[in-house]
Amino acid sequence: MKVVAPKPFTYKEGERAVLLLHGFTGSTIDVKGLGRVLRQAGFTCHAPLYTGHGGEAEVLIGTSPEEWWQDAQDGFRYLQEQGYGKIAVAGVSLGGTYALRLAMMHPVSGMISMCAPTRGKSRFDLAARVIDYAERFKTFEGKQEELRKEEMDRLAQRDMSFFDELQSFIDDTGNRLSAIKDPTLILQGAKDASLYKESAFRIHDEILSEEKELKWYGESGHIITLDQERQQVYEDVKDFLLRLDW
């Protein structure tokens, strides 16, 4: 079955703009539901798709964290070039780390971090994430088991040394949290892995924003924008953005 790759999206509504950033091995599907709710509330939303994401894992591992980070920066620049002077940044998982980093570099109207890591996972864990993604994607494509196994075996032999670069970027971002002073909302799934829950507390404790809040979702795991409490996540993000002094 031919899989239609996700695409970047832009919803143009009002003068207040929100950059939406998805996670590693994810796609703009991670943030599309949130974007629709924010659009209905009058916010312009833009979500870039990172290079290599949204398709085969073999393509993904042929790209680099430098390219993905550049895509996030280009998304922010796109909103600036479109004339938006009031921009908030929001991201889930790695997208949350990118949102943190952007808030360190630019004045933003608000920053929303959802299950963002501030410490890099091990190379083994990251490789397992790619392998799991590849298995699910190939199954969704409808590939026969024998072919799927052959492709998975070849994938497991591929060079994934780019994980070191990704780990360094996440660690470096975690060490600069005190540079963030803009209003911040931190959202975290209670059923997520310990690394992410520890990161949520760290973000809340180390940023220097006068307005900051940490909210937990008891029935949610890592990608809370797609989990069973996603509608509450959307409403909480919307309410936070509506409260900001744009």
UniProtKB/TrEMBL annotation:
Residues 15-228 form the Serine aminopeptidase S33 domain. One of its GO terms (molecular function) is carboxylic ester hydrolase activity. This is Carboxylesterase. The active site is at residues 93, 192, 222. It comes from the Bacteria. The lineage of its organism: Bacteria, Bacillati, Bacillota, Bacilli, Bacillales. Pfam families: Hydrolase_4. InterPro entries: AB_hydrolase_fold, Carboxylesterase_BioH, Esterase_lipase, Hydrolase_4.
